Amino acid sequence: METKPILGFAPYTINTNGEIYNSITGELLNQSTNRSGYKVVSIYGVPMAVHKIMYKTFLMVEYHTRHINIDHIDGNPSNNKLSNLRGATPTNDNSGNYRVKIKLNKWVNYNNTFNTLAEAVDDAKLVRLKYFGLSVISEIPPYNHEKLNA
């Protein structure tokens, strides 16, 4: 079972089963369940959804675009094992399809769908390069394709 530090929240770590530990004391943090059934933990008084910590920590994917949801493959929002998480667009959540859409001045200039998140991310980078130039591409964090199907 792999364990990684939680970015910005030292000395806390998370493992591939979604368990969060204080690496100094070895203490396992308690997780509560919110009204929607998602596991939540409080670190330094900041409440955070465990599935979002998992996805960001292990797949190195920022969900900063607001267009990527984190889907629980088995439909159980309490199952935060890494093998149960994947990225999905809000309109395609749970369907396995991923959409790349570019709008300029309220007009849709590009609209395409993909079977995998990795394909969609690669295509989105190319389309952003075409429409917005290199400066936008350099701001996008790297995407780890190998970890997606782990």
Structure description:
With 150 residues, the protein is an alpha+beta fold. It has a single domain (3-148), classed as Alpha-Beta Complex (Homing Intron 3 (I-Ppo) Encoded Endonuclease, Chain A). It is built from four helices and ten strands. It has helices at residues 50-59, 117-132, 134-138, 145-148; strands at residues 3-5, 12-15, 20-22, 32-33, 39-43, 46-49, 69-72, 85-88, 98-104, 107-114. The strands form four sheets. A three-stranded antiparallel sheet has the order 1-2-3, covered by helices on one side. A three-stranded antiparallel sheet has the order 4-5-6. Strand 1 (3-5) and strand 2 form a beta hairpin. The chain is elongated and about 50 Å long. 22% of the residues are buried.
Give start-end ranges of low-pLDDT stretches. Answer: none
Count of helical regions: 4
Strand content: 25-35%
- Give the strand order of the largest sheet, numbering strands 1, 2, ... along the chain: 1-2-3
CATH architectural name: Alpha-Beta Complex
Whole-number tally of structural domains: 1
Shape estimate: elongated
Number of strands: 10
N/C terminus separation? 12 Å
Radius of gyration: 17 Å
Specify the biggest β-sheet: 3 strands, antiparallel
pLDDT average, as an integer?
A: 77
CATH fold-level label: Homing Intron 3 (I-Ppo) Encoded Endonuclease, Chain A
Share of helical residues: 10-25%
Class, according to the CATH hierarchy? Answer: Alpha Beta
Helix-and-strand structural type: alpha+beta
Order of helices and strands: EEEEEEHEEEEHHH
Oligomer: single chain
